[in-house]
Structure formats: structure tokens, C-alpha cells
Amino acid sequence: MRYVIEDVNDPRLDDVRNLKKSDAHGEGLVIGEGPIIVERLLASAYPTRCIVGFKAKIDTYLSQHEVPDDVPIYEVTRDMLTEVAGFDMHRGLLASADRLDAWSVDEVIEGAQTLVVMEGVGDHENIGGIFRNAAGMDVDGVLLGSGTADPLYRRSVRVSMGHVLRLPWARFEGGYTNWQHKLAKLSDAGFRLVSLTPSEDAVHLAQALKGAEKVALLVGAEGPGLTEHAMKATDVRARIPMAPGTDSLNVATSAAIAFYERQRSLLDF
Predict the structure, then answer these.
(1) Which CATH number fits the domain that encloses residue 262?
(2) pTM above 0.85, yes or no
(3) Beta partners for residue 215, in sequence order
């Protein structure tokens, strides 16, 4: 059902109220912004609670997509949504959904051939970028090590273009100095564990991937990169060759290059 809302204090808008605050504190819901992500949210397993948007955006969306009868649609003005959300929501269409439990590590590993493991990646936009790149380059799943932020934060969902809602992911248990022990589960499953590092002592990425049927690519945070604890738990340290005067790339960019190189390595099979 579609409803026109005229009061910014209407409790039906509470799901999208103060979005910057809820994003910072990771409170409760999944928020999808823009028609593409709303569509992917509706198609995902996450139970959609409502859709909120400007009249023109809702009209256009409904002319192209079906919305389940049990999902209410709330029509508001741009000024109202700006006041409710806490900033100018210029995309004009968003949806909220209930969270679900993440997959287990075993579920993500099962049947996978290529995985990416993040350690200490706290920037939500980098997380979203890695998920988007992984989905686009046929990575089977994502595993999160210590210090990695929640991929269901609003900005991560937005930057991933909603792919975080469909790509399997799970979090390893453990803290800064011991989560790496859980990587043995990947080794036991036949994965070659490859650490991405700018170190000159590391081998060329293509060499590290050559001949591997299953690969798990480890990436670390901007700046510090992977911890020595994590790299010691892997089979090989690999680098992306860099031009003189440069030493590293953004972590999402590095991951994308690694995913592409992984695809190239599979041509040998």
C-alpha cells in the first residue's frame, strides 16, 4: 500500500530517521538507497520493512518494478526527507529491511573457489567497494577478520551497489592476535592463502596465483595493511608491481586487480 505522509514526526518514518547516527552506531536495520539498491534489497533474503521516497521517484519505480503487497510505500517531499534523514537524500528513494544473521564460515567456504579475506578494514566505503568488485569478478564469498567493520552499514551497502546483500560473507571469531588461527580452516579445505602486500620481498601476484585451484586473497586496512600475524598464517606473500615513486593502491583497487588476476589464472584450468 502507498501512503502520503505530511508530518516529519510520523513514526512510520522512524526507520529512516537520523541515518548518519544509525550508520555510525550500526543500529539495527539495513538501508538501501536509490532504485538499483532498493530493487536488490527487495530481491534479497533481508525482509523489507518499507520504502520511502519522493512522488516522482516512487512513480517511476512502480512503473518498472513490482513491490510486494505487504511492503508499505511512504511518499514524502524532499524537504521532509532531508529533515527526517538528517541530510539531503537526493536519490529520492530508499528502503529499510531487517537484518539477518550472517552465514557461517563453513557455509561461505563450501563450494567456493575464490574468496577474499579482509583484516582491519574499517572504512565502510572500502568494504562496499571490495564487495562490489568481488561480485563483479566472480569471487564466491567474503570473510572478515579482526577489526573489519560491519558490511551492512548504510555506506557499505550503498558503495557495494547492494551486492553485499547477495554475496555470502561471514566473520572469523577471535581478536587481533589470534583470529588468524581460524585461517587453518581454509587451508584444510584446499585453499592457497595469498597475502597482498607492497613489500619488495613478496612475489609477483601472477606467480602467487599460478596453478592454484582454490585461492583466498587477504587484504588489510589502508596504511598499515595486513598484520604480520595474518601474513605468517598464509602460504605466500604477493605484490602488485608499482611504478617508481609509488608504493601502494587503495585497498578496494588492489583487491579488484587481484580478483582480475585470479580470473586470468583460472584460464589455465
Answers:
(1) 3.40.1280.10
(2) yes
(3) 114, 192
